[in-house]
Design goal:
Elements (H helix, E strand, L loop, with lengths): L2 H6 L7 E2 H12 L2 E3 L2 H4 L3 E2 L8 H12 L1 E5 L4 E6 L4 H10 L1 E3 L7 E4 L4 E3 L15 H4 L6 E2 L9 E2 L7 E5 L2 E2 L4 E2 L4 E2 L8 E5 L13 E6 L9 E7 L2 E9 L4 E10 L7 H11 L3 H7 L3 E20 L4 E22 L2 E23 L4 E20 L4 E20 L5 E21 L2 E22 L5 E12 L4 E14 L3 E12 L1 E4 L13 E4 L7 E3 L2 E3 L5 E14 L2 E16 L15 E17 L3 E16 L8 E2 L6 E11 L2 E10 L3 E2 L21 E2 L3 E13 L5 E9 L7 E8 L5 E7 L4 E9 L1
Parallel strand pairs: 2-5, 11-16
Antiparallel strand pairs: 1-3, 4-5, 6-7, 7-8, 8-15, 9-10, 11-12, 13-14, 15-16, 17-18, 17-47, 18-19, 19-20, 20-21, 21-22, 22-23, 23-24, 24-25, 25-26, 26-27, 27-28, 28-29, 29-34, 30-31, 32-33, 34-35, 35-36, 36-37, 37-38, 37-39, 39-40, 40-43, 41-42, 43-44, 44-47, 45-46
């Protein structure tokens, strides 16, 4: 509901005491408000209309009372005094809301084209019992994962490395635990998440497919809050600890229990991730066996908040995520036993410092510096061939950023700034038999200035944001501009027309040298753009061209929203240039090619969402897209389907919330991904498979049904608890998510297929203090 509409109901109505209004809301929505008596003493507000949702009612009371209403969970809401400058920002934010409770509670669609997720207010989605950020966004139209992982999220046809993931403003290079099945970001310490598929704000660089901006709480409220919980994969805890009136510490930690307890969920995850890897092949070998295998992961976050004064704030950020896999390979030969240990570790750590100054009620600046480090290491022993292979991929990313915001009134907002980034990426390969070692390191520095202006009409019907970035890469002597546009116009009260557009670029990407690199489990490695035009040989290692990837996208959408009923349709066209064939995961005739090309995708996303008060929400979404590659050196330069070309995708789901119970059931279907089959009319000469035209066929359609349920209850007055249960792939559908072909000992073509997760149950229990 817009600001103008909320204000319109206040005309000629006699005000009521705030206590009376809160009591009526408690009875109507089965919630409980927590507040200090002096906070609401003597406050009054205009009476609320009966057709308002809970979220709309809270937004109205924020405007009326200048108080902050924070939703803790589905039952408890805290009330605090808002800081002086907050009232201005809250008004602006409320005006931007198009749809509250988009799909489920805690998800909001804004009129700048972005989606906002608040994990603390999150309702429930099918298959999820916890607000996993990277799983949640896959419920949005145009977002899916071709292999069911959070480390391979495809947004409008792009690859995962084309998504920019920010944790409190710091770029992340690792997104998942358990090699992609679990998000690496603790949802219980995340305040909100902003997702952009197009029309990105000018302050964001990188990420030609999407922006996923995760933000932790940034205000000191002098209240202790903590929680602990576990499920069949991991246990975690978090705490928000006031240190003084000016200081606060936020902590979280999570660790897997998989090396302590062997659960059904872990067995299913292991079967999915380790299939077709060196680890699995060793177990199936007749000559050797694997034993004493162990796997675990953990993550730790810390944020220190200190308010120097009412105008000056300092924030310190720390993040560390780690995965470790060990297994022994033992060979018995001539009564002699030999055992060697293979290992894979993956880590992303970061530290940052942010300083914010509010010069006055209109102008503020934020300066941030950070360093983030990603390290992927593998040591692989092949006992049968007496070979040891060491591989390492390491990224160092340092950045300094100055952001300025000027808000003269609620209609205009001007934002601009400067960002400097230095990225160094190294790749190591070391083989002992035969002796071979290659170490390559590239460093790239980028300067960018950006500016944009936002306009919001008095009646909140028109929203325009226009700006751009100017990027300079001294090493390549490159200077290029990236315009950004977001326009939204409401008409006939319930309709909204939207146009979004952007130019974007990125200098980092992931490639696959060999499918069995890094034990075949995490085979993608980060590389840096080198702007080369041809292959070069350095230290006996071929250096292939890696251009700066550039994209341009435009979309137009029409939305209808009335009485909890939403119809939304958005058409788009996007083109990305400078992509490498090595980043696309080919396993056909192009597996070992090194070509530079582009992809172009045209599509439409449609969603119908009906909400019945705050109890039932149902939706069905449909996405159609046509995504084609063009490589001058491949397929005679003719376009052919992208590896992520999923023409049709349908999602149907419903959620039910009543008092402390939440239920969800959903179905996901999409057409099969492209596949290249061997040419039946050709013989396999010289141990080489002859293929048909690239991606000229498709795998079978994908179908998955999920369900989940949670129940919240009070243990004591200050301790709340919740239990949850979910089943992923209820029908145990055997979905083939990838198929490739090899030659057996008789020179016959043999298909190798990878299956998705089978039926996977999970349960959770949480306490909140």
């Amino acid at each position: 509901m817009s600001f103008a509409k909320l204000r319109a109901q206040t005309i000629q109505e006699e005000k009521q005491s705030l206590i009376t209004i809160l009591k009526s809301l408690e009875d109507r929505y089965n919630v409980s408000f927590s507040y200090a008596d002096k906070t609401i003493k003597d406050l009054k507000a205009n009476p609320l209309k009966n057709d308002l949702s809970l979220e709309e009612a809270l937004e109205f009371l924020k405007l009326e009372t200048n108080l902050d209403f924070e939703i803790i969970n589905n039952r408890f809401i805290t009330i605090k005094k808002a800081k002086k400058r907050k009232s201005l920002f809250y008004t602006q934010r409320l005006d931007e809301i198009i749809v509250s409770n988009f799909l489920t509670s805690g998800i909001t669609k804004l009129n700048d084209g972005s989606i906002n997720i608040k994990p603390e207010a999150f309702g429930i989605l099918p298959g999820l019992i916890e607000p996993d950020v990277l799983q949640t966004i896959q419920a949005l139209p145009g977002v899916l994962s071709t292999d069911e992982t959070v480390s391979n999220i495809n947004v409008r046809g792009g690859t995962h490395d084309q998504n920019l993931l920010l944790w409190d403003g710091i770029k992340m290079y690792q997104s998942g635990h358990f090699f992609g099945l679990i998000s690496a970001f603790n949802p219980y310490t995340t305040k909100r998440v902003n997702i952009y598929k197009n029309g990105t704000r000018a302050k964001y660089g990188d990420g030609i497919s999407s922006i996923i901006d995760m933000q932790l709480p940034d205000d000191i409220d002098n209240e202790f809050n903590a929680g602990i919980g576990f499920n069949l994969i991991n246990a975690d805890g978090f705490a928000k600890i006031p240190l003084s009136n000016k200081a606060e510490l936020q902590l979280s930690a999570r660790r897997s229990i998989t090396d302590l307890i062997n659960t059904t969920t872990f067995e299913q995850y292991s079967k999915r991730i380790f299939q077709d890897s060196d680890f699995e092949k060793s177990q199936n070998s007749e000559s050797s066996i694997s034993q004493n295998e162990s796997f675990y992961f953990y993550d730790v976050t810390l944020k220190f908040l200190y308010d120097i004064s009412k105008k000056d704030k300092i924030r310190v950020h720390f993040f560390n995520v780690f995965n470790d896999l060990n297994y022994d390979e033992r060979l018995t030969n001539n009564d002699r036993s030999e055992a060697l240990n293979s290992q894979l570790t993956q880590r992303n750590s970061a530290i940052g410092l942010t300083y914010t100054r509010d010069w006055d009620q209109y102008f503020s600046t934020t300066a941030q510096v950070y360093v983030t480090n990603y390290d992927l290491d593998a040591t692989n022993f092949d006992i049968l061939n007496n070979q040891r292979l060491i591989q390492e991929n390491e990224v160092y990313d340092g950045s300094a950023k100055l952001d300025m915001t000027y808000t003269p009134n609620h209609q205009f907002k001007i934002n601009g700034g400067y960002q400097f980034t230095e990225v160094g990426i190294s790749n190591l390969e070391d083989v002992n038999n035969p002796n071979f070692r290659s170490f390559i390191r590239e460093v790239l520095r980028t300067h960018a200035i950006y500016a944009e202006t936002g306009f919001l009409s008095n009646d909140a019907k028109t929203k325009l944001v226009f700006g751009g970035r100017l990027n300079h890469i001294p090493k390549f002597n490159m200077l290029f501009a990236e315009p950004r546009l977001s326009f939204s116009q409401r008409f006939l009260n319930n309709f909204r027309f939207e146009v979004l557009g952007e130019f974007k670029s990125q200098t980092t990407s992931q490639i696959i040298d060999l499918q069995n690199d890094f034990l075949g489990i995490e085979n993608r490695r980060w590389v840096l753009s080198n702007n080369k035009n041809e292959v070069e040989i350095i230290n006996n290692k071929s250096i292939y061209p890696v251009p700066v990837i550039k994209s341009k996208q435009v979309s137009a959408g029409l939305h209808f929203n009335k009485n909890g009923f939403l119809i939304s349709a958005e058409g788009y066209i996007k083109k990305a240039d400078g992509i490498s064939s090595r980043s696309q995961g080919f396993q056909n005739q192009y597996q070992f090619t090194n070509a530079i090309g582009s992809y172009k995708i045209k599509g439409i996303d449609v969603i119908l969402n009906k909400q019945f008060s705050d109890i039932v929400s149902t939706w069905i979404s449909y996405s159609y897209s046509k995504n084609d590659y063009t490589f001058d050196e491949l397929n005679n330069g003719n376009p052919f389907p992208n590896n992520a070309d999923i023409r049709h995708a349908v999602s149907f789901a419903g959620t039910y919330t009543y008092k402390n119970i939440k239920l969800a059931l959903g179905l996901n279907w999409h057409s099969g991904i492209p596949n290249t089959e061997p040419d039946e009319n050709e013989s396999n000469q010289d141990n080489i498979i002859t293929y048909a035209n690239p991606n000229s066929s498709n795998l079978e359609d994908y179908l998955r049904t999920d369900c989940s349920a949670t129940y919240a209850f009070d243990i004591t007055e200050g301790v709340k608890a919740s239990v949850g249960a979910s089943i992923w792939n209820v029908l145990n559908k055997k979905n083939i998510i990838n198929t490739y072909y090899v030659l057996d000992e008789n020179n016959e073509v043999t298909p190798i297929s990878n299956e998705s997760l089978g039926i996977t149950p999970n349960v959770s229990f949480r306490l909140q203090f």
